[in-house]
Amino acid sequence: MGIIEILGCAGFALGISLADSPLLLTAFSLGLAGGSGNLADRIIHAHGFLNGCVVDFIDYGWSVGNVADIYLFLCAVCICIFLFRFDKKRGKDEKSSASSRKPGRRKV
Predict the structure, then answer these.
(1) pLDDT value at position 100?
(2) Active-site residue among 59, 69, 87, 93?
(3) Is residue 34 within 8 Å of 69, Cβ to Cβ?
(4) Residue 82: CB partners within 8 Å, gap ≥ 6?
(5) How many C-beta atoms surround the C-beta of residue 43 within 10 A?
(6) Is 87 a residue of the active site?
(7) pTM score, two decimals?
(8) Given 15, 40, 77, 95, which residue has the most CB atoms within 10 angstroms?
């Protein structure tokens, strides 16, 4: 799991450098914070190379987690909101470009 978290943190760091939207920047920042928090827990509590445990101390009633898990959840929520907004915007752009063409003329 430690290697996956390292790759995830690298992906979030790359996302931060490429983000062109404040919402995506927030999402990737939350993801990097959550991923690095869990990774730090694995390193601190390791019995070998990155095979440590993540300490979960918040009982939600249906599961147990930590602050890093909350950040990762918020990251996922922000990405879903961005994708929903982007998809709606793209649909509007396609409709406006289709309606702006003159009737009887085909675009080649």
Answers:
(1) 56
(2) 69
(3) yes
(4) 21, 23, 24, 27
(5) 13
(6) no
(7) 0.74
(8) 15
Tell me phi and psi for residue 26, to 5 degrees.
-65, -45
Q: Which tokens sit at 61?
A: 């009633």
Provide, for the chain, the percentages of residues in helix, strand and coil under a 3-state DSSP scheme, each rounded to the nearest 5. Answer: 70, 5, 30
φ/ψ (deg, to 5) at 58: -110, 120
Question: For residues 108 and 83, which has the higher predicted lDDT (pLDDT)?
Answer: 83
Residue written as tokens 């430690």?
2
Our answer to whether residue 20 is catalytic in this structure is no
Report pLDDT digits (tens) over 60-80: 888 888 999 999 999 999 999
Q: Tell me the pLDDT tens digit for each residue of 12-68.
A: 999 999 998 899 999 999 999 999 999 998 888 888 776 778 888 888 888 888 999
Q: What does the DSSP 8-state code read for residue 100?
A: T
Beta-carbon contacts of residue 87 (< 8 Å; ≥ 6 apart): none
Contact 22, 38 (CB under 8 A): no
